[in-house]
Every structure is written in C-alpha cells, then in structure tokens.
Amino acid sequence: MRFRKVKSEDYQKIVKLTSGVWDGSDYIPLVFEKWLKEGNGYFYCLEDKHNQLIALGRLLLFEDEVGWLEGLRVAPSYQNRGFGREMARKMIQLAKSLDIKTLYFSTYFGNVKSISINEKMGFSRIEVYTNLQLDTLTSGSNVTVFPSSFSFHGFVSNDWVFFPAKAETIVNFLPACEFVEISGCRIIFSRNIKFPDTLEISWLDSSKVNEKVIRGAISFAKSKGYKRMHLMLKAGSHLEPFLKNGFYYFEKSEDVYLYKGEVEKLKLI
Fold this sequence. Notes:
two-stranded antiparallel ribbon; Aminopeptidase
C-alpha cells in the first residue's frame, strides 16, 4: 500500500471510485483539475500493489498553521476494512509534517462511522449548521443592495468548506466576494467553489434575516446571472424566511457538523 499525490492520469480511476457516492453525483470529478493545480492544496491517495486506488483525501491550507480536510473517500471494495481510518491517519501525519497546528472538517450527520473514527482521534464538534439550497431563483423583490464594509465573526463558508472569519483568508478563498447590506442585514456573497452557477451566502448576520432580506438576496443573485443559491445556516437561526422563499434542506435541518482538532493532540488510532 502506497500513500502518494494524485496525478492527472488518475482521473478515470477517481471517477470510478466516486461513482457510488451521493447517488453518482460526487463533486470530486468536477474539481479534480482545480485540486491538482492549487498550490495550497495536497490531494493524496492510497494505492494497492496493483496500482488500484483504495482511498482519497485532500488537505487545504488556509494559513500557515490552519488546514482543512475534505474529500475522504474509500473505494467500495475496500470499505469496512479500516482503510478510511488509515487514510485519515495519513492525512494527519501529512498535516504534522507541514507544521499545521489546527485542522477543521465538516461532515453530514449521517456519516456515523466517519464521525466515530474522527472523534476517537480527538476531533471535537464545534458548530452545527443547516445545509440550505435554492434550485430555482424566483422573482425576488426590488430591494436596494448597498455595497458595504463591516466586521464579522465566527466562521465563513463556501459550499461545505468553513474557515475562521479573517479578512485575509476571505479575500484569498472566496471567489467573486462581495460585502453587501440588504434591509439592514450584512451579508458576504461569493461564487460557489464547486458550482460556478451558484451564488453562495458565505456569511450573514442571522439576527437581521427576514423574508424581505431573502427576497432581496434572490434578486441580487439573478442580477449577477446566477442560477441557484446555497448557504450553511448556523443552528438556532430562523429557517422560516428561507423556507418560505423556496430554500430547502435534505433529510433534516441541522444536518452539517463542523469539527476541529489540535494536530498535536490528535491520536493516530
């Protein structure tokens, strides 16, 4: 078994490995080229002695000492045999070799085995979110959107990626980022990193959200040529303004867990 960087010639193998994930709609084939080219990303795999891919994983560096884990996948024929745990070990060892101090990752509430493995390794759940998306942009309303600048806190997100809300990180990692104010609600918009036709609500002041704000956000998305919208809404925030305007979640609300681990304290079980 060999731990190595993913190469361009691995594409078809990765398409095959991920074909059964999310009913065949896994995003990894869509971002394959991007992940290979990004200088601050480490896209790795486990390979058996016959050069078949066993597992995948990616480490993204936000800052010198902060990293993000994503894309952990295990080939169907190798599942339930400890290879997911082994891939997680390898990625943590990689993080240590890069002097990363803190790691984050997010996962769906239903990934019970993955959650169990990572919690045993020492990762702690720090936040819960609801994954919301809007597939068809309605007419919205003619609400004035003001360019703005403001302070922010907590975490900023794009798709399933979260990072601490720091100005430099936001500029570097949120494509087509815009700070706006709609009816008194401060919002950070960006282009979704996996689906370019989707406008991401990367951060908002959830205490100020109402239906007028959401309708204004939808109009803003349409005016920019987007086809869909997405956001991660922090647990405890009001869902109703989103649901009344066509946003939906999957199996249940509060379905996304954000985890944090201090690398030196993680156990390579």
